[in-house]
Amino acid sequence: MKTYDVLIIGSGAAGGMAAWVLARGGADCLLLEAGPLFDYEKQRVMKAVYELPYRGFNRPGRFPHITQASEFDANLWADEKQNPYSYPPGDPFYWVRIRAVGGKTLRWGRASWRLSDYEFKGKDHDGYGENWPISLADLAPYYDRVEPMFRVSGRNEGLPQLPDGKLIVDESRDSLSVQRFIAACKKRNIPTTKPRRATGTLASSYNLLLPEALESGNLTITPNAVVREITLDPKTGLANGAAFVDRRSKREYQVSAKIVVLAASTLESTRILLNSKSPRFPTGLANSSGVLGHFLVDQFYVKNTVVAVVPEARGGRGGRTLMGGGGYVPRFRNLDRKEKDYIRGWAWDFGSGFTPPAKYLPLYGEELQKQLADLAGTGFALTTMGEALARKENHVRIHPTLKDEWGIPCLHITQKYGDNEFRMAQDAMETAVELCREAGFEILAQHAQMVPPGESIHELGTCRMGHNPKTSVLNAWNQAHDVKNLFVVDGSCFVSAGVQNPTLTILALSMRASEYILDQKKKGLL
Q1: What is the C-alpha separation between 460 and 454, in angstroms, rounded?
Q2: Distance, CA of 376 to CA of 478 (rounded, Å)
Q3: Which domains does the chain have, with CATH numbers?
Q4: What whole-number distance in Å separates Cα of residue 188 and Cα of residue 204?
Q5: Which tens digits make up the pLDDT trace of 387-438?
Q6: N or C: which end of the chain has fewer CB within 10 A?
Q7: C-beta of residue 498 within 8 angstroms of C-beta of residue 330
Q8: pTM of the model
Q9: Strand partners, 230
Q10: How far is CA 278 from CA 237, 238, 239, 245, 444, in A?
């Protein structure tokens, strides 16, 4: 059996970046992906809604926790009947997965924000939780390289909580409705900015990272490889490969490697580690600390916190000058001092120019149709993204009996939001209402109800970094304290979540860890 220099598990942002760095750096790499390799030229087709059996809404029961899925893209999302998991009664978790070459970068929202030292050194700021073992200064050189690769557009505002980047400057003009909201924010010294989005060729691992890695001649991709466990050499205590199941034939295979890079996404990577038991690690690979699986965290979302109407746009009078566009309000609470009855903070996405849904109008029939026509294109809405605190009691473990279609034990996921998050959501709603009224908008609806944990698709933690091997799984280079040739480079390494979308940080961390692997390998230390 051939022994590869590096085995990479997962092909999304983390795995794609690892493959891009390591294969181009001369390492002989094998990448295992649990799902298929799509041929978009041959397999993608256009269909009218009436041609679909369920008119675009999916077969009932196939995706009970994936609100993003539709019948148009159902083949992208992981079928929950094949890939089950569990959670406590009454406390649902929405685990949203794409099992295909390219991972979730095939459908990510492309929001690309840097974390700041308010996140990396949060404990220093407010005393809660743990600091990351790295700072913004450590990761900034990698952010500087990732942003141009993904052609991130936006504006630098010089805000410490929203670090500047190597951006394509967004010089688009704001509509008058957006300008009015920005003016209301300025009166309260609340910062606003343009969205930051990756704009590169479809901005995915599939398009930007894996092709160049393959061109190096040093990367082999094996799709449909559902990893059961990482294997360990009992003599050396080092990882020596992985056991996997072919997704279609269900045959068992084993591969051998000198270094293992785990990048299967937060919960799947942790599931693999927890299932990788041995006499040396009876509770999961690299888990001498007992921390593996704990401190699950994400960002909480309140969708459409406020839905408002710009009255001057009624009756079709809006147009592109008044309506359209949007922006972002970065965290502004609890920066220089504690301002509220909670710690950390929240942010908003806002947008203008849509038609408010009928559910906000207590009308029926002809009257409803008249109102919808009058409100066409008049909408202004904000969505809240808040920082959930990392708590040990929010955790995952292996279910004692539940297994997936390939006989691999599944996860039981426990995560609940606490008082700190609920207070944030309430403050965000009340502040949004005030600002919309100050901007001259009419409020149609307001609420502070968070979506279930996981629905933001920003699950993080459970395999956290840290300086202390007794309180963390990985060191500052994403290297397992217990197994020096094992690296975990996806969102599971996060110590805290912040309010920022995590993909840009995952890309930067994976680049940094992968270059460290090449350096250690060159020095003969790996």
Answers
A1: 9
A2: 50
A3: 3-39+77-522 (3.50.50.60)
A4: 38
A5: 999 999 999 999 999 999 999 999 999 999 999 999 999 999 999 999 999 9
A6: N
A7: no
A8: 0.97
A9: 242
A10: 10, 12, 11, 19, 58
One-character DSSP codes across 424-435: HHHHHHHHHHHH
Assigned token pair, 289: 């600390």
- Could you give the CA distance from residue 322 to residue 312 in angstroms, rounded to a whole number? 8
Give the largest CA-CA distance in the chain: 77
Two tokens, residue 342: 């909670």
End-to-end Cα spacing for the chain:
20
The Cα–Cα gap between 484 and 481 comes to: 6
Give SS3 for 486: strand
216 contacts 353 by C-beta, under 8 angstroms: no
Rounded distance between C-alpha atoms, residue 218 and residue 8, angstroms: 12
Residue with tokens 């957006």: 178
Which two tokens mark 74?
Answer: 């159902």
Give the tokens for residue 474: 């990985």
Structure tokens at 256: 């051998």
Task: Give the β-pairing of 29-32 and 219-222.
Answer: parallel
Question: pLDDT tens for residues 264-286?
Answer: 999 999 999 999 999 999 999 99
* % of the chain exceeding 90 in pLDDT: 90
In a 10 Å sphere around its CB, with 0-12 CB exposed, 13-18 middle and 19+ buried, how is residue 166 labelled? middle
Q: What is the sign, positive or negative, of the torsion defined by CA atoms of 271, 272, 275, 277?
A: negative
